[in-house]
Amino acid sequence: MCNSPQEQGDIDAVDAVPAIEADASSNSADSAYEESVNESQYSTSLASSVINYKYENGRRYHSYREGSYPLPNDESEQERLDLLHHIFKLMLDGELFRAPVPPDPHRVLDFGTGTGIWAMDFADQFPSAEVIGTDLSPIQPMWVQPNCRFYVDDVESEWVYRESEAFDFIHGRGMAGSIRDWPKLYEQIYKNLKPGGYLEMQEYETWVRSDDGTLENAKFIIEWQEKIDEASKAFGKQMNVAGLQKGYIQDAGFEDVTEDIYKLPQGPWPKDKKQKLIGRYQMAQMLAAVEPFTLAVFTRSLGWSNQEAQALMAGVRADFRNPKNHLYVIVRFIYGRKPLDK
């Protein structure tokens, strides 16, 4: 089996998660399987430089702090992010988070908010909370709940919230590949939480796994994920860092840090009905994710041509579509509390 560069430190925790039992009938392609794998208040003052998006290899990218984030922000990517949000809610049985947040949070921050869908759902669920979403791209809806606001901001810059603006809950999801200095990020989060406030990170590994050895058949995926690791390190913002987050959060001073680990199947191969449904959605999400996670970092950091990247991506998608490959990724929900006496 091809091991993740970060796998050794948490192998016991991952092994404690039960293996996903495969549906024997999923090993052969059928029509159902084939069908499943085919692909009001806006508080940002938008300067022309912010919405003057950049285009590269047929995809659209942010212009604010241009080049600092390697994934696109076009409509295809927005649809993928919304689908991923749906998958996470299915994993959590409709919930938005795992942390034991009190029922009456007053100020909530969702950094790297993307389309803003998590922030808007949270604002619906907690109408008395003031929910703020920040992102490099102003791609969120203009008409949202009165208790939800969006700002264009770079989470890696110095945070400028006043002490009176401290948050009860800070949430981040899918930030791997976005952050150069994780300890600094958690230092700023800690500083801007109220005593007793919670942080939750929801991160998925970019390293594909299998419990039955079928990953060894996915040669293109093995090459792809090794190159993603190499390219993202060269870019300065490593993608496969989900397994490091618990340690970073503990080192920042948070207490009662908890990590919940889930196996997210890549395709409708599991026997369990819920896992099969999640895998069906995840297959569509993953096929859509291959290009965003590849193009910019491969062409910018590794010097690949668009044609070379497209050739590898075609093989990767074929590996994901192969019903004999019982693949999954690890998703980690890591949450902790700022001590009351801080």
UniProtKB/TrEMBL annotation:
Q: Where is the composition biased (Low complexity)?
A: 19-31
Pfam families linked to this entry: Methyltransf_23 (PF13489)
Name of the protein this chain belongs to: Methyltransferase domain-containing protein
Gene3D superfamilies given in the database record = Vaccinia Virus protein VP39 (3.40.50.150)
The terms under GO molecular function for this entry are: methyltransferase activity
- Where does the sequence pass through the membrane? none
Annotated region (Disordered), positions in chain: 1-40
